[in-house]
Write the structure tokens for this entry.
Amino acid sequence: MTAFAFFLVAFPVAVAIYAYIGYPLVLWIASHKRERETIMHYSDWPFVSVVIPAYNEEKQIAGAIEALLAQDYAKERLQILILSDASTDATDIIVRQYESRGVELLRMPRRGGKTMAENIAISRLRGEIIVNSDASIRLHSSAVRDLVAHMADPTVGVTSGRDVSISRDSAANITEAGYVNYEMRVRALETLTGGIIGASGSCYAIRAELHKVSVRDDLSRDFSAALTARIHGFRSLSVDRAICFVPRTSALREEYRRKVRTISRGIETLFVHRSLLDPIRYGVFAWKLFSHKVCRWLLPLSIVPGMVGLVLLASSHSWARVLLAVCAVFALLAMIGTVWPSERLTPRIVSLPAFAVAANLAVLEACWRVLARHQDHIWEPTRR
């Protein structure tokens, strides 16, 4: 029993160390052994379609459109299409005000969710490359050009932007911003070692022939993009120069709900493409997919039995009692973080536990939703 309890405690520790330290370290070592790739250039820039799904985004949509109109890309080679998922506010009215500047509106007859709207819109897209973004995201003026530039390499099927968090300090985003920066560094290392395994939902570009591959309405299209690219023999890259400014909500509960939706759709998407986890067929890509996604989702699932192991060991080992006390304090700080007033600066000693606990609980709830067959395809955008 003692040996089993030790295993229960050691397993989540090992998973955490590997997923968040070991995996990036291996990528870093491997990246220093690779030669730099030759950068290819277009002789003639391709036609690009930029797609933004929107549901009741009257406060955000004008800013998103203005950022797209300000892109450093030939206007005659740029299509801007706004997908209104049966919005009930002034979103459609605002978009129509930009029709004279070339902005197009496609309104869904009824709400069907983000992926369904994107599937319906495929027939309206004229671009050789499709850029997908979000109403709350503000793209740097060179973002579209930087994403598209890397498509000059015929082996590249998807390019993903670099998220930069912008918001005032709060429990929901102090640590979130740090985590996003960490995630972007991991994607940069993955790019240097052959390619990423998932694109950023904030902004990514994909070849039209890959974008037109069928994606189930309840799945994540941005996660599917890199997986589809690999199945068809393409690589996916993270482009540091393609900056996407991502506002973060000040409410931890809103971020938590967003994470649950994102993770549950991600789990469903990976299950559909589970053949990509076969290392014999997909080699390094399979290893990256397992390390970056599966291990991170596995960690919260292993923490619960790990706590059971600590309880079993506490009666005979003082270090186990100390760890239980530390976990109790950590949980208390996290509870304080969930009720901390959003208008006040949250101390890091509170925001870090709050973020960590929320992130792990989100995985557990997402797993439950998947097992219980809850549907998340009718997406409710996080109001930022």
Remarks:
- The radius of gyration is 22 Å.
- The mean pLDDT is 89.
- Residues 48-250 form a domain with the Spore Coat Polysaccharide Biosynthesis Protein SpsA; Chain A fold (CATH 3.90.550.10).
- Residues 19 and 295 are 6 Å apart (CA to CA).
